[in-house]
Amino acid sequence: MKDGLGSVQSALILGGGSDIGLATARALVADRTRAVVLAGRKPERLAAAADGLRALGASRVELLEFDAGEFERHEQVVDDAFALTGDLDLAVLSFGVLGDQRVAERDAAAAMEILRTNHLGAVSVLIALAERMRSQGHGTIAVLSSVAGERGRKSNFVYGSSKAGLDVFCQGLGDRLHGTGVQVLVVRPGFVRTKMTRGLRPPPLSTTPDAVAEALVQGVRTGADMVWVPRPLRWVMSGLRHLPRPVFRRLEI
Amino acid sequence: MDGEARPVAGWGRTSPTFARIRTVRDADDVAEALAWAGPRGALPRGLGRSYGDVAQNAGGLVLDTTGLAGIQELDLERGTVRVGAGTSLDRLLRELVPLGWLVPVLPGTRNVTVGGAIANDVHGKNHHRDGGFCDHVVDLTLVTTDGERRTVTPAGDPELFAATAGGLGLTGVVTAATLHLLPIRTGFVRVDTDRANDLDDLMARMEEGDHRYRYSVAWIDCLARGRHLGRGVLTRADHAVTHELDRRHAGGDPLAFAPRTVGAVPPTPRLVGRTTVAAFNEAWFRRAPREARDRIRPLASFFFPLDGVAGWNRLYGRRGLVQYQFAVPFGRERTIASAIDRLSSRGCPSFLAVLKRFGPGRGLLSFPIPGWTLALDMPAAYPGLRRVLDELDLLVAQAGGRVYLAKDSRLRPELLRDMYPELDRWREVRGRVDPARVLRSDLERRLALGTDERREASV
After folding, report:
1. Do A59 and B457 touch (CB under 8 A)?
2. Which of B18, B443, B446 has its CB closest to that of A181?
């Protein structure tokens, strides 16, 4: 159960091998979480991460195989996670691919791959999660969106559109679940320095997985609908969104 | 079959969850509801004054027991009353006080049901002398999850009685109970007030003089530091007899009981913060007389000062409030000072801090132990509150003490067994009367109350 000060006792991390997913798991265990399920494409690669969480004080860490593209297995993965933890207080969706924009904008298959993971895979597993949490009568689903979904940019609109679709889905889902005891938290980080973005030049206001994790845990604690990381990005993006198109088009962002 | 589904929260309003609500009207109704509870189980709930999640059952069924209300039999010869478990103490007092009888244990609010008072074995300002609520229960009717109606008495089935007294509603649904009453001559108390300059002074006065009074409670200024740490106001009282009433009080009916609510708090942003806590504590201390004797006060204003303001929990804003009450054995008084000091030095002072002395508890999970108890309430939004309270849990556990589960919303499950050494006996009895674990609560899930965590983890 989520306790009176907003800490959760059990969590499922979908994309448990991602830098943000792992940082979140660590932040949760450092707080109150004792049961963690890490789910990823190659669970055997998560063994070291699991040991790390145990060393931090987790009494139970379980590994599950989860592939965002294998929609037909999603319900089973969610059922397995609930079976392992009993009540599941928090599910984090921290999987995603950045893809190569230059390739994806000209190669439909590459673009589909990005959408399939970031948008369709997420929607598929979200529906299974929402159903289970609704019948449980409580729970939080935290979803890693991105500021890239705020406005289409020529430099990353394939990735951006996948996150935009996910973001809108989650906003609606959050409102649909309002009053059921289930909270949907949309996390919108800017540029995060992770394996996914390795090799790219960090822009101003770039952030770290630990900062994202901390903001996420705080958002769960306060029952927020949306958090931006870092926070000023909210105002930056609000400004950018209202720029006239001809001006926006010329920006090298 | 399904009741209306809605969010259910404790009085602290910190972690609401969603459940189906069904109002039960009699024992048959309860038995039927339990038989069809569904996979997330069922839980009785009264007026929802417990601060934490003890009366919540996420995703399951919550039985609203206020439909079980009513006085069934009043025996003025024996001084007992038989009531439906959903009857509120408010209702009881309005009926009984004019007849010259009082419910012998009164918690800080009269807006609780008899069933809730039994399930949490609530205490009052007279615990040091009269024990808790369940010490005055003659018998109770318990509907267990097999549908059976059992009459449970302390002598007839001591194990089941001890597991149900303070059993958090998890052994069965109490549908009715017979209570011993206390005869009174007037609806007033005679109050002595003393101001103490520090904690040692306060505790010494309580140790030395509490036995002379039926009621004793101390308020502590949580912001006083250094040599004034624990300064406070001690309030002790006995029931007033007729000739003690002055003309002002005796003018009307000496047994009148007509408490009024003076106002209500609308939904508001948080008003309780460090500044208001500081101002309130200072004013409260200064307002109290250094020493006053034999002041006559009406029962309701003495026992239930907070009931005068409806919805006062809203003052704590959207994130709600955490009430932290712990007890430590006699000889471990240092824990009280450490707790107050830590909270105020870490920027988490309590709005109200109440100190009392306890006698032994009645049930296996009853909160009272012979010793001292301190109750604190703080906004859940205080940054750093979690860490300080986690530290206090450890101090309390090491001192052989415990926190009050009826108010808890954030204890670590690991400490439960240390705090409640009778836990395994309670689990045994619960296993006997509810083997399928139909009765569930959010608190029970959060603290793994019903299962041995270590055993489960090793599977």
Report:
1. yes
2. B18
Q: Is the minimum CB–CB distance between B3 and chain A shorter than 8 Å? A: no
How large is the angle between the packed helices A47-56 and A19-31, nearest 10 degrees? 20
Chain B residues lying within 8 Å of A136, measured CB to CB? 40, 58-59
Is-contact B312 B263, C-beta < 8 A?
Answer: no
Nearest by Cα to B394 from B347, B339, B444: B339
% helix / strand / coil in chain B, to the nearest 5? 35, 25, 40
Q: Band of the pLDDT at B1, cuts 50, 70, 90?
A: very low
Q: Is B380 on the interface with A (CB under 8 A)?
A: yes
Enter the ipTM: 0.91
CA distances from B132 to A232, B368, B377 (A): 54, 8, 22
Cα B62 to Cα A35, A241, B37: the distances in Å are 27, 47, 9
| Tokens encoding B314 | 């809203």
Q: Which of A63-67, B46-50, B253-257 has the lowest mean pLDDT?
A: B253-257
The span from the CA of A69 to the CA of A124, in Å, is: 9
Q: Assign A196 a pLDDT band (cuts: 50, 70, 90).
A: confident
The verdict on B388 touching A (C-beta cutoff 8 Å) is no
| pLDDT single digits (tens) A77-93 | 999 999 999 999 999 99
User: What is the least distance, in Å, from the CA of A253 to any CA of chain B?
Assistant: 37
Give the Cα separation of A42 and A63 in Å (integer): 9
Residue bearing tokens 């994790």? A213
φ/ψ region of A6 (left if φ > 0, alpha if ψ in -120 to 50, else beta) reads left
Lowest mean pLDDT: which of A135-149, B232-246, B272-286?
Answer: B272-286
Q: In angstroms, how far is the first alpha carbon of chain B from the final one?
A: 37
| Residue B85: partners with Cβ closer than 8 Å, 6 or more residues away | B44, B46, B65, B68, B113, B114, B115, B118, B140, B141, B173, B174, B175, B176, B177
The reply to whether A222 belongs to the active site is: no
Contact between chains at A181 and B380 (C-beta distance less than 8 A): no
pLDDT in tens, A127-149: 999 999 999 999 999 999 999 99
